[in-house]
């Protein structure tokens, strides 16, 4: 294995996930406050509508349930839910083919007309019967919302539905649903499957947590780095060089549609004496994963940082060699790679 020669640049990694921004069509935007009549704004601009007058969507027989405890310090989005002890679905009118982002919000509470939601065990399937969540439970997460995010291909010939299917003698629930279009080009290069993608990790490296303009959450990488002494946080760089739309020589320049620029303004760089920086991720061995790594050379002189990015042993990409791409001669240019490692991997090495 080759070794990282100079500093590692801004890097963040996320698995089974890609990155959109534009809304193709407002008609296909759904933000639903399930089981409630009230409109709720969760974060600025992220407004969920109550279900008193559903527009463009419907749901099958099920119950609206409400938290009997009504704790004040949690969004009212999480104090109501739609629940049932038999399968139920939400059906959405979709007017354009494309890739859509779906987020399902779950937060367990106790209700008079239902059980303690934390006892529910259920699955979530899409219109093609693809399992988004299997034997899902919010046990141990009472009052701590769990948000599951998916990227799905939807054809307008589908009558798009999300099915909530309880295990025998259990029930299913959901507190809120987001469904809106992602740009057509958000799928990773060479990822040809139509299977839904499930976001597993999304990290900003060396920075603070970020919520972006489409409410993607970027967590810190601190708990994924294998050796804290291998890397230090680089001084943040506020002036990025965004003059390379589209990219240069096969490298994709990034922009705010791909990822918020703030994630490119922070980085980790190697400590003197370490040979690599390694991040570890626990993943399911039953799934294939996409890794997208984002870089921006905000460390030292441009062209000085040449290193390899590895995902386990089966993916390697040389980064920073000017003879591979002239993009590397400029500093502070955001760019990214996506890879689908050939077999499963349990860690991401950068050497
Ligand atoms: C979201 O709701 C807030 C407060 O109710 C409102 O001020 C804002 O304009 C809404 N934003 C959108 C995008 O609808
Ligand atoms: C629901 O049950 C769990 C244990 O199963 C318990 O920890 C939690 O406090 C209960 N929630 C409420 C709101 O009663
Ligand atoms: C999904 O599964 C259900 C029940 O197993 C079945 O009735 C339905 O036809 C299936 N739908 C598709 C699109 O395969
Ligand atoms: C869910 O878990 C139960 C018990 O652990 C198991 O019997 C069942 O087969 C699982 N269901 C699915 C769809 O995996
Ligand atoms: C919930 O917590 C208990 C005790 O901490 C643990 O044994 C159990 O596996 C947890 N369940 C889930 C679904 O995480
Ligand atoms: C996509 O496939 C082409 C042809 O196999 C290859 O040259 C290219 O490097 C691949 N791109 C990525 C990001 O893996
Ligand atoms: C991101 O949004 C969540 C609510 O969804 C909020 O709790 C959190 O504080 C926000 N984080 C930042 C860094 O804005
Ligand atoms: C952002 O980058 C993506 C992918 O490289 C590209 O398709 C899109 O047009 C770019 N958006 C802007 C506003 O430049
Ligand atoms: C890195 O360490 C080497 C010896 O291990 C030393 O010669 C060099 O000056 C150090 N560089 C920096 C930037 O500290
Ligand atoms: C990365 O560096 C650590 C020491 O910091 C070393 O144990 C490990 O073997 C290195 N991994 C690779 C792939 O070079
Ligand atoms: C950069 O790439 C060229 C051509 O592939 C190669 O000859 C050279 O050794 C590389 N430079 C470094 C520092 O790896």
UniProtKB/TrEMBL annotation:
<feature type="signal peptide">
    <location>
        <begin position="1"/>
        <end position="27"/>
    </location>
</feature>
<keyword id="KW-1133">Transmembrane helix</keyword>
<keyword id="KW-0325">Glycoprotein</keyword>
<dbReference type="GO" id="GO:0005524">
    <property type="term" value="F:ATP binding"/>
</dbReference>
<keyword id="KW-0732">Signal</keyword>
<dbReference type="GO" id="GO:0016020">
    <property type="term" value="C:membrane"/>
</dbReference>
<protein>
    <submittedName>
        <fullName>Putative non-specific serine/threonine protein kinase</fullName>
        <ecNumber>2.7.11.1</ecNumber>
    </submittedName>
</protein>
<keyword id="KW-0723">Serine/threonine-protein kinase</keyword>
<dbReference type="GO" id="GO:0004674">
    <property type="term" value="F:protein serine/threonine kinase activity"/>
</dbReference>
<dbReference type="InterPro" id="IPR024788">
    <property type="entry name" value="Malectin-like_Carb-bd_dom"/>
</dbReference>
<dbReference type="GO" id="GO:0004714">
    <property type="term" value="F:transmembrane receptor protein tyrosine kinase activity"/>
</dbReference>
<keyword id="KW-0547">Nucleotide-binding</keyword>
<feature type="domain" description="Malectin-like">
    <location>
        <begin position="32"/>
        <end position="318"/>
    </location>
</feature>
<keyword id="KW-0812">Transmembrane</keyword>
<keyword id="KW-0808">Transferase</keyword>
<dbReference type="Pfam" id="PF12819">
    <property type="entry name" value="Malectin_like"/>
</dbReference>
<keyword id="KW-0067">ATP-binding</keyword>
<keyword id="KW-0418">Kinase</keyword>
<dbReference type="InterPro" id="IPR045272">
    <property type="entry name" value="ANXUR1/2-like"/>
</dbReference>
<keyword id="KW-0472">Membrane</keyword>
